[in-house]
Amino acid sequence: MPQRINKAIELLEQGQPLYSTGANQLTYEGGKALAKTWADYINLEMEHEPFDMRGLEAFMQGLVDGGPTASGHRTPAVIMTIPAEGTSEDTVRANAWMIKQVLARGIHGILLCHVENDGAARAFVESTRYPIAATVEGLSEGRRGAGGQASASRIWGVTPDEYLRLAGPWPLNPAGELLLGTKIENRRALANVDSTLTVPGIGFAEWGPGDMGLSFGHIGAHDPPYPADMEAARLAVAAACHRNSVAFLCSWNDPNLSIEERVRTLLDDNVMLLSGIGEEGARIGRTITGRTMPV
């Protein structure tokens, strides 16, 4: 039986990599169709898509009604990329309403784009924490307000009061069920990556090759083989993740490699969130790492 609400966190605690899929329809039917997905988490992309809270609400209910997963979790984990950017602390504060909205729909994590410094990362984490959370050095009081716990708790299958205790960022809160990620995807963010990833509450980071490439002046360089400056950036983000005990998210869509070779490349680089390798790649990766939790 599952030990957590958030399947992604439970696997990371076991030292197991995560495999993701996207969603084609942000509807009730779309959620129901993905409720028993092969993936460990569903990546919902709203950075460049409509910010559709009614659709998200219906999608999450579809996941519940179509579940549970084969692993016994009520739903797969859902991590959303939101349109707000982490260019500064003020920018995150001004757009914290988006964070409140998506968390109130019952999702399990957020990926914030263009996180350029530790001030933005702190504001991000603080916006996901309730004021009742324990005081932590380096963070001010949590700023998430009451009200959204009722709708979110129905998706999680807990009471509103239980949700208030569980809805904290992991691993800052060892019992927390929210997984927060930062995209380090331009030269400004790269220069500050270590200080950004020292902020308590950041669980994973991605290097964002598309935007990182544009930042270095490259067009169409999302996939390998990368120019030398981009490969150096990727390795720098990976090393910062390792130094700060933050999981690294990366894809490796090299058309010259087989799926197995791509998976082994990522695992050899200690990538913990493998992106873009599909169901076959997930099957191969789970075999390599000796995973026992059912899909």
Structural class: alpha/beta
**CATH level 4 superfamily:** Phosphoenolpyruvate-binding domains
Number of domains: 1
Distance between the ends:
13 Å
What fraction strand?
A: 5-15%
Rg for CA atoms = 18 Å
* Helix-strand sequence: HEHEHEHHEHHHEEHHEHHEHEH
Strand order of the largest sheet: 1-2-3-4-6-7-8-9
Residue stretches low in confidence (pLDDT < 50, at least 5 long) are none
Question: What shape does the CA trace take?
Answer: globular
Give helix % range: 40-55%
Number of strands: 9
Question: How many helical elements?
Answer: 14
The average pLDDT score comes to 97
Q: Which second-level CATH architecture applies?
A: Alpha-Beta Barrel
Query: What would CATH call the class?
Result: Alpha Beta
Q: What summary fits the major beta sheet? A: 8 strands, parallel, barrel
Oligomeric state, counting identical vs distinct chains: single chain
Classify the fold: give the CATH topology: TIM Barrel
Task: Tell me about this structure.
The structure is a single chain. It is globular and about 50 Å long. It has an eight-stranded parallel β-barrel with strand order 1-2-3-4-6-7-8-9, surrounded by six helices. The chain has 295 residues and is an alpha/beta fold. The chain has one domain (7-288): Alpha-Beta Barrel (TIM Barrel). 46% of the residues are buried. Helix content is 42%, strand content 14%.
Sum up the structure in keywords.
295 residues, alpha/beta, TIM Barrel, eight-stranded parallel barrel, 14% strand
